[in-house]
Every structure is written in structure tokens, then in C-alpha cells.
Amino acid sequence: MTVGIVLVSHSPAVAGSVAEMAAELAGPSVAIRPAGGTDDGRFGTSIELIAAAVNSADSGDGVCVIMDMGSSVLTAKTLLEDLADEDDAPAVRLADAPFTEGAVAAAVLASTGQDLEAVAVSAESAWSMRKL
Amino acid sequence: MAFDTETATAWITAAEAAVKTDEARLTGLDAAIGDGDHGANMVRGLAAGLTNIAERGPTTPGDVLVAAGRGIVAKTGGAAGPLYGSAFRRAGKALGDASSVEAAELGAALEAALTAIKELGGADEGDKTMIDALAPAVAAFQAVAADGGPIAAAAAAAADAAEQGLAATVPLQARKGRASYLGARSIGHEDPGAASTALILRALAEVTA
After folding, report:
1. Alpha carbon of residue B204 to chain centroid
2. Which long-range contacts (CB under 8 A, 24 or more apart) does B19-27 make?
3. B59 φ, ψ to 5°?
4. Cβ B27 vs Cβ B33: under 8 Å
5. CATH number for position A101
6. Does B77 touch chain A (CB under 8 A)?
7. Considering CB atoms only, which of A46, A47, A70 is closest to B79?
8. Cα(B186)–Cα(B26) distance, integer angstroms
9. Does the B3-208 domain belong in CATH 1.25.40.340?
10. Which residues form the domain of A43?
11. pLDDT per residue over B69-91, tens digit each?
12. Any transmembrane segments, and where (chain B) (predicted)?
């Protein structure tokens, strides 16, 4: 069992490609689900797509959600409020992380079987990984 | 008049009609400092709110606003979706299961909506957002209600205050959302979110007049 990861972007292609890249680096044990764009394929955010991705990514150990910006963040926060009202909702932690780097960091740590909080902290620690 | 299920439904209906009429203006404002989709998003969101009301058949004004909020959250597509959606849902919950409310309760519900938007978006007055229209509107509504004024007078005062708040966003520099990336270049334009808020509050004034 591993923590699942959901990637929320305004762009379906960005969410899908970053999910593909993170999966390549993390290996097959981690469920990484993209939730990009609106439910009719436009740029934007869909609470229904994010909710479906969360449910799909959860294997019982919870789901780390990483957002790009703006409405992605606001919509993910709204979903979190909605889930708080549900009895059997998956454990969800929003990570305040850079999108690509955070996704890779979270996916790699999730592949080692660490818990939800550790995976989210790993994503957030990507802020401090200097490149130059 | 009191604010009941019929009035609440009329409000959302009028708000949807208002953003549809002004869709091009909202989009134009958003094209100047945002991503140019606010008009279409608001029309789609409020239409989804109306559809959800029709499907659920709410029997209290609170349930009408919650149903509208759920539709708006689901279908708007931009940041306005979670912001307005949470605002309407929180306002609806604040009304509880009353079949009809007076000005004081509706004022408290509008304040709950303002709090929801502030909590979710992290913005405050002066950041060039919808809060710059909504905050003075809530204060104006509650001032009339506190003096024992009727909903019609409170809603008219709120709509006037929202329109003044909208005008006051022109010299502001955006500190939230896409427009904040523009820095000083966001100055000189009305905020599109404040513009849609002013339309929604004018719709409330019209249906309660």
C-alpha cells in the first residue's frame, strides 16, 4: 500500500505529462492521477475531476494533492472542505509545493511506503532543493 | 417583504440573467488584467446553479443558495467557481432551515459569504478582488438592517455600495490572482470579480424591491 498522488493543473496536458514523468521516476507502485482542466476539456479546474482522481488514487493510505496555482488551489481547498463533511472520505493532504518538482519528490517518497504526511512534506521540501 | 424560497430562486435567476447580459463587459474587464474568461465562466456557473436548483427542488431559501453554490462550484471553471460557490453555500447554511428570513438574518448570511471568500482566497479589502465590492455591500446591508430597515432598502444600499466599491478598484494594484503578476500594470482597470459581485447584488436589490 502506498500514498496516492493527484496532480491538479489548469491544463489537462500539463497534469497528464507531469503525472507520466513522476510515474516514470517513482515506479509502478504509486498511483498518480492527473486532474487537469475542466470536465469538458477546457483550461481551468473541475472539482468533479479532482474528486474522481482522489478516489481513484486512494488505496487506503490517503492522497497527497499538488496544485499549480489560482483556481487549482481554491478548488482543491473547496474539495477538502466537502470531504470533511463525508464519513468515509479518503484522507487528503494538500501540499504547498512547486508543481513538477513537488510531484516527483512526493512520488519517489511514496514509492518507499512512507505515510501521507511524510509524502506531503517531501513535496513541500522541494522548495528548498536548489538547482544552481 | 421577507426573503423566502421564491425570492432566493428569483435572485439566482436574475443574477444569471444579469451576467448573461453583461458577459462581454465582464470578459473585457478580465481580458485587460486576467485571462479573459470571467464573463463566460460566470454565465456557465450561474446557469449550473439554476439547473441544480431546478433538479433538487429546494424548499427553503437556505437550500436554494446551497444548491446554487454547488452548481457554481462544479461548473464555473475559474477561481470564481470555488469563491462564489463557497460564498453561496456558506450563506445558505447560515440561513438554516427557516422558510423565510428578515433583513438581519439575510445580512448575517451575506457576512458569512464574505467570510467564506476571505478564508478560501486569502484576500482582504484593497487587494483588488470581489471583496472590494462585497465587503462594503455587506456593511451597508447590515447598517440598514440594524436600523430596522426592510430587505428592499438594505439590498438597495448594498448594491449601491458594491458599485462604489467596484469603481474604487480602478486605482488599486492587484495583490491576488493572475492580475497580481502584472504588478503596477494592473492599476487603471476595474476588477472583473468586483464587477460580477456588483451585478449579483444589484440582482438581489431588483428581486427584493
Report:
1. 10
2. B19/B43, B19/B46, B19/B196, B19/B199, B19/B200, B22/B195, B22/B199, B25/B195, B26/B192, B26/B195, B26/B196, B26/B199
3. -115, 5
4. no
5. 3.40.50.510
6. yes
7. A70
8. 16
9. yes
10. 4-128
11. 999 999 998 899 999 999 999 99
12. none
Q: What is the pLDDT of residues B121-130, one digit of tens each?
A: 999 999 999 9
pLDDT digits (tens, 9 = 90+) for A56-110: 999 999 999 999 999 999 999 999 999 988 888 999 999 999 999 999 999 999 9
Give the containing element (helix H, strand E) for B31.
Answer: helix B23-33
Instruction: Name which of A39, A49, A73, A75 to mutate to probe chain B: the one with the most chain B Cβ atoms within 10 A of its Cβ.
Output: A75
pLDDT tens-digit series, residues B171-186: 999 999 888 999 999 9
Domain count, chain A: 1
Whether the CB-CB separation of B54 and B15 falls below 8 Å is answered with no
Shortest alpha-carbon distance between residue A79 and chain B (Å): 9
Instruction: Say whether residue B62 is in contact with chain A using an 8 A CB cutoff.
Output: no
Cα gap B150→B115, rounded to integer Å: 23
B77–A48: do the CB atoms touch at under 8 Å? no
Distance separating the N- and C-terminal Cα atoms of chain B: 9
| Three-state SS at B130 | coil
Chain B partners within 8 Å of A77 (Cβ): 82, 120
DSSP per-residue letters across B93-121:
HHHTT-SEE-HHHHHHHHHHHHHHHHHHH
From A76, which residue of chain B is nearest by alpha-carbon distance?
B82
| Chain A residues in contact with B82 (beta carbon < 8 A) | 45, 47, 71, 74-75, 77-78
Distance (Å, whole) CA B39 – CA B23: 4
